[in-house]
Amino acid sequence: MGGRLRRRLGARARADRAGGALSAVVPEAPDHLQADCTRCAALCCVVPAFSRGADFALDKPAGTPCPNLTADDRCGVHDRLRPLGFPGCVVYDCFGAGQHVTGAVFPGLDRRDRTALHQVSTVFPVVRALQELRWLVRAARALELPAGLAAELAAAEEDLATRVARSAAELRGTDVDAVRGRVNGPLTRAGAHARRSVRRPRDLRGADLVGADLRGADLRGAVLRGAVLLGADLRRADLGLADLTGADTRGARLEGADLRRSLFVTPAQLEAARGDAATRLDDGVARPAHWTTGA
Fold first, then answer.
1. Longest dimension (CA), the chain
2. Residues with Cβ < 8 Å from 148, sequence gap 6 or more?
3. Which of 47, 90, 157, 198 could form a disulfide bond with 221, CB atoms 3.0-4.6 angstroms apart?
């Protein structure tokens, strides 16, 4: 399947490269959208459940502290997570939800308080989902967009900020799927507008591309929203203006790939993938440390 798909996608490489492309560089996220573990009660190490496998070296029930967690809410093996079998921890991003829940929703939170922790477990996933949407909306607003769509995204960002600032009870009652559904519309249109110079961009949203051979493939402008690229070989592929919203890039090979102007690529997606010094990124986008060390 991978070889056939790669040949098909490469057929119009030159034609699609004709015409200019909009810059999709996302400005550095503000503090409220960046995880700050120094202001969190290690919620990502306590609230979620871990299942032993490729991402985690052990099983951990939800609401139970990871055995590597120290008394001061720090990871005792942070500098050795990948070699010890915890790459899932390295690529996890709460988008600032941890410090917001710890400091604003439950000020003075102590993760050892079981009653409080139970309440937190029903709120933290909601805040994280809203924060991720805020990150995506901000990325869309960095694009060159029609005035009407830009205004719609600005209103969406304001609405999300208002929701995040609500009480624990209000957050607990938030219908995240409904909120995501409303925000998805303008996000999708923003991506389509950015790709308008690409003739007949491929629609691969939700595609199962696990282990697919896509070496050198022309994926310029492709819609890869929610696609599963687990272990896919994308070496030297052109992903310019490709929409990677929610794509699973764990173990994807991006050595020599061109991700300049790719849309909605989060730092966690880059951390989850494998790249090298030849992987082309937009100016200002941080290259994961393990890409150069080979870890």
1. 61
2. none
3. 198
Q: What is the pTM of this model?
A: 0.85
**Residue 14 buriedness (CB in 10 A; 0-12 / 13-18 / 19+):** exposed
CA 295 to each of CA 79, 83, 202: distance values in angstroms, whole numbers, following the listed order: 12, 8, 33
| HEC assignment per residue over 148-177 | HHHHHHHHHHHHHHHHHCCCHHHHHCCCHH
159-193: per-residue pLDDT in tens? Answer: 999 999 999 999 999 999 999 999 999 999 999 99
- Which H/E stretch holds residue 89? helix 87-91
The token duo for 169 is 């009870």
Q: Which residues contact 220 (CB under 8 A, 6 or more apart)?
A: 13, 16, 17, 198, 201, 238, 239, 240, 241, 242
Compute the distance between CA of residue 4 and CA of residue 192 in angstroms, rounded to an integer.
26
Answer for the pair 242, 224: CB distance below 8 angstroms, yes or no: yes
